[in-house]
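Torsin: structure tokens wanted.
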Amino acid sequence: MKLYTIYLFLICFGAVPVCSEILSIIAGSSLVASLGVGLGYIGWQKCFFDCCSEFKPIHEIETNLTILLSEKLYGQHIAVPALKNAIINHLKTKEPRKALTLALHGITGTGKNYVASMIAKSMFTKGMSSRNVHVINGNRHFYDDKEIHDFKNGLTHWIQGNLTSCSHSLFIFDEVDKLPSQVIDAIKPFIDHNIKITNADPRRAIFMFLSNTGSEVISQHALKYAQQGKARESISFIEMQEIVEASAYNQGDGGLKNSELIGKHLIDYFIPFLPLTRTHVLLCIRDYAKQESIFLTAEQEEKIADGLTYFPRGGGNAGTFSSSGCKHVANRVNLEKFQL
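Answer:
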């Protein structure tokens, strides 16, 4: 058995996962590249030994995603329909022109990572543990240009290898604003229009970019509505997408700013995640307590919510929004559990 066939056999049965950790991308790039060549050589570009069997039927994905977004994601009346429609329309398109690219922006704790896990759970039987879900965390340091160059090359081979394994791949770039724009540019060939890449078809893939960029302007816009006595739900997708896109263009030093993804208009949707109110935080507290079979009284729920921080600090709308959303809810509920 030739070497690439052995590698391919091991990958399809879980012995050598293609979705390597970020630190091993460079080291494994040669292996991934050779896998792509091997797959192309034998003509099995989409799946091998049923590698794509984890991908659910589209009608089931639509049902699952609708339920999860509507019942588990709080305070995001803009993100819920935008994400659902974008993903389902993309999956239902027989011949998409390009990969679906989604940029999710907002402060911490508003649900960006939570949504990514919902999408993975809806699409694949193993959810975030699926071999077709690939996560890159931008929270790392690059010390020189050579390291950036090597990582960029490794990333290219890594994406191509995973797409060769299964075209219905989900790529999640968390804290993308912390990655150098040169690294982000390595993604461009995979999300451009009508692009054909040797041994891989990227058009059916989904790329998600999670970022805190623009969170301040998103929060200020939501606060303006509160100050004017307008309903939160009256904030429209169109006005917020323009605000978020402008922030992605102009804020920060890396990430999407100055990248070809922005310059070539390759991001399909800029999706804002609004800051959460105290009411939303209480819902998160109740959900987590129920999930962990922890009984809390109404007084205990209020106590946990009161222990979190809110902004703005002063003025007539003081404490309108949670500074950390639902991020610290699990820790606070667990702490309260030990005091029961």
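Residues 53-272 form a domain with the Rossmann fold fold (CATH 3.40.50.12190). The chain has a mean pLDDT of 84.

Cheers.
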